[in-house]
Amino acid sequence: MEDKEKSGKDRDKKQVPLRLSAELYREIAAWAEDDFRSVNGQIEYLLHQCVKKRKGEKEPK
Length: 61
Description:
Blueprint: H1 8-11, H2 22-34, H3 39-58
Helix pairs in contact: 2-3
């Protein structure tokens, strides 16, 4: 898909090479299947959740 065909949201995404152990990949792949996501989508979702949690913990009460 060319850039002009992608939505603005997709164009802003960065590609990051990631090395995972085979065991971790299998676990994430199984989890992704349970949640009806791709492995990439599952990793992105999990990272997003971690960032939200971290930001929430740093906000003043």
